[in-house]
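Hi everyone, sorry if this is the wrong subforum. Our group has a chain we'd like a structural model of before ordering constructs, and none of us has done structure prediction before. Sequence below.
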Amino acid sequence: MDSILENKCSKIKLVITDVDGVLTDGGMFYTDKGDIMKRFFVRDGMGVTLLRKHGIDTIIVTKEKNPIINEWYKKMNVKKLYDGI
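Answer:
Right subforum, don't worry. Here is the predicted structure as tokens:
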């Protein structure tokens, strides 16, 4: 990586992201009982892990209040989840 890009990247301390259409493809799956399922892309999880390894925290801000998002947030060791906002 060239030194200018490295210098710019070294200034990043925090990534703030939504979920639907960012960490998922935006689609929702419904069970016959009306439960909602989301599909998270494994590479996004790896991205969060790599950011954390480089000292960059991730925060999720989402309108939804959904147990699926809460489980993903805990599994990925995301710094903070602001849901229902």
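For your construct planning: Residues 7 and 46 are 23 Å apart (CA to CA). The chain has a mean pLDDT of 88.
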